[in-house]
Amino acid sequence: NRRLALVFETACDAGKLVYSSIDLSTDIENRPQAKQMLVSLLEYMNSEEFHPNSQLEFIKLQQFENSEMNDKKDKPTDIY
Description:
Layout: E1 7-12, E2 15-20, H1 32-45, H2 58-70
Antiparallel strand pairs: 1-2
């Protein structure tokens, strides 16, 4: 089963983030679609347009991450 969103943005505490369940780090040079998605996300995050409307408490983000990790073997990778 896959969650409804592959990518979401949110404000969290004093910061903001984009969360992606898409693998954007493994063998990126041989996966042009993933590489372009990564480039596009990073450009968006560095733009003036990046202002998430939703707010997520840090504890909820941790709970979400822990539930995601129960379904995966690999740990998430920070791409930024």
